[in-house]
Automatic annotation (TrEMBL):
Domain Formamidopyrimidine-DNA glycosylase catalytic span(s) in chain numbering: 2-120
Organism phylogeny: Bacteria, Bacillati, Actinomycetota, Actinomycetes, Kitasatosporales
Protein role: Involved in base excision repair of DNA damaged by oxidation or by mutagenic agents. Acts as DNA glycosylase that recognizes and removes damaged bases. Has a preference for oxidized purines, such as 7,8-dihydro-8-oxoguanine (8-oxoG). Has AP (apurinic/apyrimidinic) lyase activity and introduces nicks in the DNA strand. Cleaves the DNA backbone by beta-delta elimination to generate a single-strand break at the site of the removed base with both 3'- and 5'-phosphates.
Entries under NCBIfam families matching the protein: fpg (TIGR00577), PRK01103.1 (NF002211)
Keyword vocabulary terms for this entry: DNA damage, DNA repair, DNA-binding, Glycosidase, Hydrolase, Lyase, Metal-binding, Multifunctional enzyme, Zinc, Zinc-finger
Organism the protein comes from: Streptomyces fulvorobeus
Protein name: Formamidopyrimidine-DNA glycosylase
Length: 288
DNA sequence: AGTTGAGCCTGTTCGC
DNA sequence: TGCGAACAGGCTCAAC
């Protein structure tokens, strides 16, 4: 599952391998992969044909490539299992190849969107005046964005009547934090996932954001080295997760701080992993 | 109007 | 052995 650091690696790969190239034929092999392009697959392919690609951008887990005059962008999301690959044109099709973008040049490579579960996809959108595809204008900046405002984030947490993990996954508050990094940063912060955000102090928020950034930067440092191969690297297996996880997927394993077995609890149709000793559940708070 | 939780999708793993 | 259930989860949106 590509997390923000992996998506950043893909962005760098796109920057390296497709910037400035002019699109030739576009082949949509699965309609679901362009479902966010409301005008449909044929329109997607026709509009893209002949367009020159700009420099790839990223916010959270969204990627986009501005087109020619910057009024439109090619937007992508990898979902759970998506990959963007730059492949030799004669390489055999991947089993789950969904979209093929051929270039009108002599470099001999093409861009492929491969996605087993088709949670991800590509689409074309008008840009906002800020240069952001309009459909993601509501997505908050991610914590690695220099313009992310910690004070504004904290103020929003205080106003919300929700829990801290839910807030970490709320794209309108902060983007790019998935289930894995949420559990990891909460473990590092010794915060229980059901802690009401309204009870977080400013130092607690600062600590939490620091750990979110640490986890992401550590993964980026480990996964960010392979992007200058021919492949735009995105297999979702950075190797980071197997070696470095403290909480996520560690049910029954001793907590790396105190030795108490890590617990797994069903949460929002998925799981939350936490240390029952280090991350104490919040006391019931009277609602004012 | 803010908050909640179901649902999308398919390959893999697990238990009966 | 075979089959169905559970699971993985980023994001949206209907419903409360």
């Amino acid at each position: 599952m590509p997390e923000l650091p992996e998506v950043e690696v893909v962005r760098r790969g796109l920057e390296r391998w497709v910037t400035g190239r002019r699109v030739g034929a576009v082949e949509v092999l699965h309609p679901r992969a362009v479902r966010r392009h409301l005008a449909g697959g044929p329109d997607f392919a026709a509009r893209l044909h002949g367009i020159r690609l700009g420099t790839a951008m990223r916010r959270g887990k969204y990627l986009w490539v501005p087109l020619d005059d910057m009024t439109f962008s090619l937007l992508g999301h990898l979902g759970m299992s998506g990959q963007l690959l730059v492949q030799p044109q004669d390489a055999p099709d991947e089993k789950h190849l969904r979209i093929r973008i051929v270039f009108d040049d002599a470099l001999g490579t093409e861009l492929r969107f491969v996605d087993q579960r088709t949670f991800g996809g590509l689409s074309l959108h008008e840009n906002t005046p800020e240069g952001l595809p309009d459909t993601i204008a509501h997505i908050a900046r991610d914590p690695l964005d220099p313009a992310f405002d910690d004070a504004v984030f904290h103020a929003a947490l205080r106003l919300r009547r929700t829990t801290v993990k839910r807030a970490l996954l709320d794209q309108t508050l902060i983007s790019g934090v998935g289930n894995i990094y949420a559990d990891e940063s909460l473990w590092r912060s010794r915060l229980h996932y059901e802690r009401p955000t309204a009870t977080l102090t400013r130092p607690a928020t600062t600590l939490l954001l620091g750990h979110v950034r640490d986890v992401m930067n550590e993964a980026l440092a480990q996964g960010g080295t392979s992007f200058d191969s021919l492949y735009v690297n995105v297999n979702g297996e950075s190797g980071y997760f197997d070696r470095s996880l403290d909480a996520y997927g560690q049910e029954g394993e001793p907590c790396h701080r105190c030795g108490t077995p890590i617990r797994r609890r069903p949460w929002m149709n998925r799981s939350s992993y936490y240390c029952p000793h280090c991350q104490r559940p919040p006391r019931a708070q009277p609602v004012p």
